[in-house]
User: Fold this.
Amino acid sequence: MALLDLLGRRMSLRVLWELAQAGQPLTFRELQAIAETNPSLLNTRLKELRAAAIVVHRTGGYGLSQEGKALVRLIMPLDEWAAAWGARLSAENDAPATLPAMRDPVERDRPRSKES
Assistant:
């Protein structure tokens, strides 16, 4: 369950996704811009992913290790399933416009007033 704990942390999957999509090493600043996150959180996730031997840091920047590439290959079927699932939801007349977990993360994490 240690892997699920790591992957369940905020921005872990996003970092893996962006590194996989880039296909080449990314500098810290490039990864920060692409992942749209703050430097403190990104630094923490990169340290954790490096300690787990999923991400490596090389001369050109951060990239996936061989273990990281194998992990992404296992995760990719979830992306395919999610695309088909989203299409099915959209096709249904009574499907909600957005699911709570799919809202903007900034909006989802914003504290709410007692009136809302």
The first strand starts at residue 55 and ends at 58. Helices lie at 2-7, 12-22, 28-35, 39-51, 66-91, 105-109. Residues 103-110, 112-116 have pLDDT under 50 and may be disordered.
